[in-house]
Amino acid sequence: MELGVIGLGRMGQIVANRSLSAGHDVVAFDLSAEATAEAAEAGAEPADSVGDLCDRLGGEKRIWLMVPAGDAVDATLADLEPHLDDDDVVVDGGNSHFEDSVRRAEETDAAYLDCGTSGGPASAEAGFSLMVGGPEWAYEALVPVFDAVATGPDGHDRMGESGSGHYVKMVHNGVEYALMQAYGEGFELLTDGRYDLDMESVARTWNNGAVIRSWLLELCEEAFREEGSDLGDVADHVAGGSTGTWTVREALEQEVPVPIIYQALAERFDSRNEGRFSRRLANRLRYGFGRHEVARRSDGE
Ligand SMILES: NC(=O)C1=CN([C@@H]2O[C@H](COP(=O)(O)OP(=O)(O)OC[C@H]3O[C@@H](n4cnc5c(N)ncnc54)[C@H](O)[C@@H]3O)[C@@H](O)[C@H]2O)C=CC1
Ligand SMILES: O=C(CO)[C@H](O)[C@H](O)COP(=O)(O)O
To answer: Which residue range or ranges hold the 6-phosphogluconate dehydrogenase C-terminal domain (predicted)?
Structure first.
């Protein structure tokens, strides 16, 4: 099959490379000429614009977008629009909000597949897990490419109508936050607890047969191996947060309790705050009701 790939960063290069390795032809474009050249070195045909990519693909276009979620997806679709008709298929493999995907599917002449992609750059060798929403015929048309980009035929499936792929990926990310938080709390207790333990050894032992073994736990093991049992100079600041916020917002709308996912999200936000106002007020209130001593900031700020 011939596939156009737009967006050739950490993830898009893998989409292009795995498609090429499976024998598909790839036409590649990125706003960055360097990224396009990297794909060309790997065997893709380089394009110098979205229009050029469409000209090179010819009829019945199959195009995979792997650009940052948000405005870049809308901008790319606006550039694609004059070149698309209803026998073309566009896949958005990024972390788009599912409601944006539903809107884009309605606005686009081509069949639109929203594809939640999990595995990250670390899965270049093994392949991704792909959660796809959109028209069944379009999903079937792309199966050879999904087979190549995913771990294989079991690594992808059609979740349902438009939006469902990105909806499932949104919830996946909420679960990811909660699992990270649970492992983090366990290792924190082990680090601060009664025994002098080697965290890499704990993680390795757990990863071999324990109930809680997982890929995230393998990544914990790798982190302790590479950074040290105390994580060395790794800061207590966790970035990101948009996909987990979407999950919690959706849970509130659906009135589904997700306290653990919410708590993990709140902990992430908290990691970016120094001198939390609520803690300072609690400190002062204890003086108010109990005349307990108020701890004061040493810098007077
Ligand atoms: N990095 C990760 O672990 C994962 C990322 N994703 C999602 O995949 C998407 C891509 O992520 P990454 O590859 O990590 O980002 P990245 O920042 O590494 O790459 C994005 C690429 O898109 C290009 N680009 C931006 N706007 C463009 C436009 N209008 N036209 C053409 N190219 C454009 C940039 O030049 C860049 O090369 C995002 O939606 C991200 O949330 C999904 C799962 C995992
Ligand atoms: O989708 C992913 C993993 O599954 C991406 O790594 C994503 O960037 C993670 O979300 P956040 O930035 O909110 O932590």
So the answer is: 165-301
Is 96 a pocket residue for ligand 2 (Cβ < 6 Å)?
no
* Distant-in-sequence, close-in-space partners of 136: CB < 8 Å, separation ≥ 6: 158
Nearest CA to ligand 2 atom 4: 118
Nearest Cα to Cα of residue 169 among 195, 133, 211: 133
pLDDT digits (tens, 9 = 90+) for 24-43: 999 999 999 999 999 999 99
CATH number of the structural domain 169-270: 1.10.1040.10
- Domains of the chain, residue spans: 2-161, 169-270
- For 148-205, how does the pLDDT look when each residue is reduced to its tens digit (9 = 90+)? 999 999 999 999 999 999 999 999 999 999 999 999 999 999 999 999 999 999 999 9
Distance from CA of residue 37 to its chain's centroid?
A: 25
Q: Are 165 and 112 in contact (CB under 8 A)?
A: no
What is the CB < 6 Å shell around ligand 1?
6-12, 30-32, 35, 66-69, 72, 75-76, 94-95, 117, 120-121
Q: For the domain made up of 2-161, give the CATH fold.
A: Rossmann fold (3.40.50)
| ipTM of model over 0.90 | yes
Active-site residue among 38, 169, 200, 221? 169
